Amino acid sequence: MVLSGRFCHHILLRECHVRDVDDTPSTLWFYIGNEVIRFSVVEFCLVTGLTFGDSFESPSNIAKHMDKRLYRSYFQDGKVHVKMFANWFMNLGCNNNVSDNDMVKLVLVLFLEMTLVGKDDRNSIQYWALQLVDDLDVFNNFPWGTFINDRTFDSLSTYLVGRDDMYKKRLKSPAKQKADKYNVYGFVTAFQVMCNIW
Q1: Is pLDDT at 84 greater than 70 in this prediction?
Q2: Angle CA(183)–CA(187)–CA(191) in degrees, nearest 5?
Q3: Which residues, other chains included, contact 169 with Cβ-Cβ below 8 Å and sequence gap of 6+?
Q4: Are residues 71 and 43 in the same domain?
Q5: Where is the DUF1985 domain (predicted)?
Q6: Which residues pair with 29 in a beta bridge?
Q7: How many independent structural domains does the chain possess?
Q8: pLDDT score for 196
Q9: What mean pLDDT comes out for the span 48-65?
Q10: Residue 19 backbone dihedrals phi, psi, to 5 degrees
Q11: By the 8 A CB rule, do 159 and 184 touch?
C-alpha cells in the first residue's frame, strides 16, 4: 500500500469533537459520509498487531546500559541519517562482511525507522534502536504498539492545527502559489487503512 498524504489530509480536515467522549485519551473522531468515525488505540492495534503495554520505559532509557556493538561495527563515523543507512543497506550485496544475525537486526532497525516511526530520511537514526535490536529478546518484548501509537496520535492530532485555514485560502488563490506542506510522523499507514475500511 502506498501512503497517500492527500487522502490522509482530507480525512484530517474532517476531524470533529464528540460531546462526552472527547476526554478519552488517544482518540480522534471524524465526520465522514454522515457518520462519526473513531480512530483510537483499538483501531491502531487491530491494523498493526503490535504489542501493547499499560506503561513502558522509554527505549532510550532501556538502551542506556546496553552494548553499542552494532553501531561500532558498522557506523563509526558519527551521525547516521536514515537515507544514508537505507542506501548503505541496499548496496550491501551478497558478498559482504555482515553476519546473517546482524543482517536481520539491521533490517529490523530499518523497518522501525522508515516504516513504523515514519521518520524523514534526512533525520538521524536512533542509536537506542541499534542497541535494543542487538538483544532480540529485549527488542521483541518491547511494547512497540504503545510507543508507535503514541507517536502517531501526537502527530495526527497536532500537525494540522491552524493549517486547515491556510489550505482553504490556497484553494482560492492562484495555482502558482507554493503549497503548504507538513510531515506527519508515526505509522500513518494504520490511519489510512482504517479510513479505507470506513
Answers
A1: yes
A2: 90
A3: none
A4: no
A5: 24-146
A6: 16, 38
A7: 2
A8: 72
A9: 83
A10: -60, 140
A11: yes
| 64, 138: one domain | yes
Q: Can you give the residue range of the structural domain that contains 74?
A: 59-142
What pLDDT digit, counting tens, does each position of 153-167 carry? 888 887 666 666 776
The better pLDDT of the pair 64, 164 is held by: 64
Res 138 pLDDT > 70: yes
> Angle at CA 178, nearest 5°, toward 174 and 183?
135
Which ranges of the chain does DSSP label H, i.e. alpha helix?
A: 5-12, 41-48, 59-63, 69-74, 82-90, 100-111, 127-133, 136-141, 144-158, 163-172, 188-197
User: Quick count: other Cβ atoms within 10 Å of Cβ 166?
Assistant: 11
Residue whose entry in the numeric block shows the C-alpha cell 535490536: 133
Q: Which amino acid is at 168?
A: K
The secondary structure of residue 113, as a DSSP letter, is I
